[in-house]
Amino acid sequence: MLARYQIKMSLTLPGFVGDEKQIRLFLTVFYWLATHGSGWPFSSISSAQLDRQYNELKTHKVDPIAALQEELFWAVCRIRMAHGHYVGYCARFEDVFGEMASFDETIYKQELFAKRDPEARRAESCFFYFYQNKTINFTPLTENEQALQEFLLSQKTPANDVVEALGPFLTARFPGLSADQLHRSTHLALNVLRVSFSFYLMDGNYFKQADFFGANKSSYREQRQRQVFLEFVESLPDRPAYSAFKRDPEAFAELLFYLFVPVLAQFTEEEKVKLKLLVEPTDILNRALFDFVDDLGIATRLPVCADLDEADLVVAVRDDYMASDIQRWLNGHANKVIDWYLDATVTDRHQLYERIYALYQQKQAAVNKLALKETKARA
């Protein structure tokens, strides 16, 4: 895990060797997962004193969890600096954050860090602002976040080029998707900017909390969408300015994919299993079946007026009042029919899910085969 970010453990002098920025991100996640904010892991820095100093910052967070995480990160930075480890000057950080209106505030006071020159303290402040602004979230945008979005959009960097190119690329791959739909969500627009600028500023992938957990990607869902985002990253110009995004294309594509899943979900109906329920919708005993089907992300329930031939699978409760033409259809398409009963058990629902899942895999395989054919044709 550490080797992915060029971090090594020194055996001669206990500690970490590598990019100081990545080391600090790793340590912050490590201590957060160890404490979750319920305890303070450092004895050399007073949590109460640091909390007071943090709340004096113009950019301090109101959300208590976000504030605790940023205070933990600030403590890690200050301890690393006290032991002689500094992030150093980085032109990209200075170019971006040096023009922010909120950057006129001195994060590291001269009286506390008198041994460091102004340039070193400014570089450290840039990295602190980076940490504050990189985190993806879905809470209502604050005034600072709205200002951040406007500021990032006004920049002229490769990160802006990536964001600008993403919209047309996706609308070309997903018919019916418009640029307006991509930018309608302010959270989506800002989070895409955050991810793009984070990769640009860190010159590639950076340490995240998700790196501590196994990559349990669902292999049966949205494979086509993942491939589309990977194709987007690979389509970026092969120039040094865009190397930050192409150095680890899978990581960049995966983050973009997760951000866009809610938007793209409405354009994947052809991959879902189409279910037709021939049951009495007003019967309270059948309500559990409707809820069960509606909660499945791999199936969609056809409307009552839909033709039986449109369905991939029909779930039917047969009774004496069923029309004769429907009875004949069910008898003639036994391979597409599951008989349902009012006293259905958990086992019955599990068997229904297994049947739906098998059909979904068949449809997914067909879609992936078509996508591969289209990719080869474009190549």
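The record above closes out task 2.4. Task 2.5 opens with a second protein, given below.
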Amino acid sequence: MTTLNILMLTLLTSLLSACVLQTKTGGPCTYVSSTEQASVLQLKTSYALLKSSTNQYEVELTLFNSTPQIGDSYRLALSTITQGSCTPIVIQSVKLNATH
């Protein structure tokens, strides 16, 4: 083998072994469940922007039972991360408030 071939083989072996030795970080995630009231601010092609007293949420239109309208008020069921490196907030359900 030529010196160049040996060098290339050594480099390739080093790169492949580095990939195998890497460990994942983050581990399992823990969430806490809560509800929040929010109103529709904007409608986009695939989501509605809802605003509560403390946060804004981009809610996929597929979560709504009917087409939301600007100003409609909803109760959001949320899961908020408390530990780990997963999705920070997961919107579980969206329900139209009876009085909007």
